[in-house]
Amino acid sequence: MKFQDTHDNPFGSSTTTPKHMISKVTLLAILVILILAITPLWYPLLSYHSSSLLKIKQKLKHTPPSSSHDDNSNLPSTYVERCDIFTGEWVPNPKAPYYTNNTCWAIHEHQNCMKYGRPDSEFMKWRWKPRDCDLPIFNPFQFLEIVKGKSMAFVGDSVGRNQMQSMICLLSRVEWPIDVSYGSDEYFKRWKYPSYNFTMATFWTPHLVRSKVGDPNGPSNTGLFNLYLDEYDEKWTTQIQEFDYIIVDGGHWFYRPMVFYERKRIVGCHFCLLENVPDLTMFYGYRKAFRTAFKAINGLEEFKGTVFLRTFAPSHFENGVWNKGGNCVRTKPFRSSEAQLEGTNLELYMIQLEEFKKAEKEGRKKGLKFKLLDTTQAMLLRPDGHPSRYGHWPHENVTLYNDCVHWCLPGPIDTWSDFFLQMLKMEGMRSAIS
Q1: Catalytic residue status for 70
Q2: pLDDT per residue over 146-188, tens digit each?
Q3: Which one is catalytic: 403, 414, 417, 418?
Q4: For FRET with 335, which of 93, 205, 314, 352 sits at 20 to 30 Å CA-CA?
Q5: Which one of the listed residues 252, 388, 406, 414 is annotated catalytic?
Q6: Per the confidence metrics, is the pTM higher than 0.85?
């Protein structure tokens, strides 16, 4: 530590009589004592994002129920550390996976990579290691204790549903949920964990705003969609007010051709190839869709929960686009030095951050909490985690032949639950010391 010049008196007074001067040694001793006494009082004021060197550990009480198929000695530490958990590298984890495609019924067929013959298994044996701390592996007992009596909604596209199914599989070591859905629609499901009175639900809204198919084929044979960028998608906006946690996501559907409407009128499009309709690019629609979605949440009168934005998870098509030979055949993660967020991926990510910050500012006025579940960098480094051609039998005629968008289960997105639980624990720490 660099001290003031010895001519300066830390007590703010001065004297010209040497016999009244306090010795330099005494001054230094007093200063050190003051620093040691005052520093702990500043901990609650330190910013989470700017304090990668500050690590506060708190032992959380937890008593896991007995289970004949679970080895509690392998559960991760219950210590919580503060750091930037989203910056780091993938490192080997020989203990993974924590479930299999045979033990979890929640895996959708097109993400059941081992069932359909994927020959390698190393893609399941990695964990995320933040640069400045350790990220504990998801502890299902801890998680269910924290969310006891609460509810959580996944709002977005099929990658969001992929995330929910991963969490169901991870929680299966403790308890299986029961189906409490209001109907039979697979796009809108509700699951309840009776022992913990915890409910999770998924709301299918690939564009986040009201949309409909304008042409089932469209310019690229993937459909042309009409997006009403200033109108809420009431299939989810009228249902989420009761939830304690909302996890919002969106991305890959915005690559498809779209026509943009505002105030009931066409204002432009993305690759619609319609005469006299300006191409505003996908980024225009993406920004407006997130802005409207966040506006809908902030406008809910009774909502008092926490909103998480789960950031864009890049696809990994190589040697062509999805319908022209593109594939993802790598079997190991990238190092952070080997892949860079750029181009379209970077633009989509930055739009999310910008709209998130605006929504967070507005939400704060109402006492709402917005949190960034920043999975983009971690998932950019996982080209090995997609189903590729192992989401169906070879003879089946499917639309997405090589799936480099969704994620195998078990697989890399199990780490999203690691992130999420860590965020809940850090939030608990902040509440405890505030």
Answers
A1: no
A2: 999 999 999 999 999 999 999 999 999 999 999 999 999 999 9
A3: 403
A4: 352
A5: 406
A6: no
Q: Which of 110, 151, 157, 158 is catalytic?
A: 158
Query: What is the rounded CA–CA span in Å between residue 9 and residue 14?
Result: 7
Query: Which residue has 């190589």 as its token pair?
Result: 318
Tally DSSP H helices, then E strands, for the chain. Answer: 8, 13
Q: Within 13 Å, how many C-alpha atoms sit on residue 82's CB side?
A: 20
Q: 234: Cβ–Cβ under 8 A, 6 or more apart, which residues?
A: 210
DSSP classification of residue 151? E
Q: Does residue 158 carry a catalytic annotation?
A: yes
Q: Are 80 and 56 in contact (CB under 8 A)?
A: yes
Query: Which positions of the chain have pLDDT values less than 50?
Result: 1-22, 25, 32, 34-80
CB 256 within 8 A of CB 225: yes
- Beta carbons within 8 Å of 43's beta carbon, 6+ residues apart: 54, 56, 433
Backbone CA torsion sign across 284, 157, 303, 81: negative
Instruction: Indicate if 233 belongs to the active site.
Output: no
